[in-house]
Amino acid sequence: MDxxxxxxxGELTTKKANRNTxxxxxxxxxxxxxKEYQITIxxxxxxxxxxxxxxxxxxxxxxxQKVFGIHGIxxxxxxxxxxxxxxxxxxxxxxxQSYQTFKVxxxxxxxxxxxxxxxxxxxIGGFVLKNxxxxxxxxxxxxxxxxxxxxxGTFIYTNEIRGNGGYPVGVQGKGLLMLSxxxxxxxxxxxxxxxxxxxxxxxxxxxxxxxxxxxxxxxELASIINQYSGNIKVNVIPxxxxxxxxxxxxxxxxxxxxxxxxMYRIAERVCSLHKCKVIINGESVGQVAxxxxxxMVVINSVTNLPVIRPVACxxxxxxxxxxxxINTYETSILPYEDCCTIFxxxxxxxxxxxxxxxxxxxxxxxxxxxxxxxxxxxxITKFEKETSSYL
Length: 391
Fold this sequence. Notes:
Layout: E1 3-8, H1 19-33, E2 39-43, E3 47-52, H2 57-64, E4 70-79, H3 83-94, E5 101-108, H4 117-131, E6 135-136, E7 143-150, E8 153-157, E9 161-165, E10 174-178, H5 184-194, E11 198-205, H6 212-225, E12 233-238, H7 240-249, H8 255-274, E13 278-280, H9 293-300, E14 307-308, H10 316-325, H11 329-332, H12 354-361, H13 366-375, E15 378-380
Parallel strand pairs: 5-6, 5-7, 10-11, 10-13, 11-12, 13-14
Antiparallel strand pairs: 1-3, 1-4, 2-3, 4-8, 4-9, 7-8, 12-15
């Protein structure tokens, strides 16, 4: 082990009595995401230190940038807390670099060290001026020399890599993400993970009306957001019989409303089976007919579980921007229809009435169909694409 990474917690430091719980969960998540690498982890209430092989450092940093609960990542160097060792390491770090200007920033967490942070800045700054050609620039330096004097030693670094922030995945319990092949629901999943919600996904397929390519598209989206979790499962519900019954029995304008009510009923039962506390989806207020406030009231009424809509108040361009950031966008726009679009009516109702929705869905025996669909649910834990077709 010849490389040391320092992890800064960020938002976790706002926690008091529960901080150790958050940090322990973060540690377990990091171990899971880095299980293919040889590492050792040391932690306290303020910092975490990961020792790794230098050859693995870049790949490990890249993975850590996706771990929620991390505010910052630094490649640092630990030395004994004495001026001589600190000066030697700083000169070593500045050697062969093309910097013109610098600034020293000292954090003295160990108050036993007799020199104040400001005074130590001046001491090290004078040393750098004397031994290099660099000039001081306190506003826009080419390099910031960070010195953290802590109980366990002194840590020196020049660059901080921004982490993903948020809470460690799982600290809030588990939620069920209604994952489609569109742009919005993967973004909703990503934002839920950021707030510490562990995810299972629920996908509705309707073979032969939907293709294996549509299913593979969703599997690929799940595998992308799984990079931020490492623990995601996808539950696949066969929705063909329910969807065909809706199409045969329900007036055209109410097809989507009734279909969504059936999906919510199924989602609630899957939550019960898999101990999920909430339903999560990618609905954005007013974006389509089923996402008006009136539609949400009618559709939502079939479940007593909380429904979280992380992108509810974002416009489409904002959602697309996040999708591009997390690398789901290019997959989401692949032209394979899912069950939400294959029977899309020309004029779906925008302001559905509760009594009409109840009347229309009572025209067929949906409870038996829902039970059958759940009994035939498939759970995917390894994201391998299928090659068979529905013929």
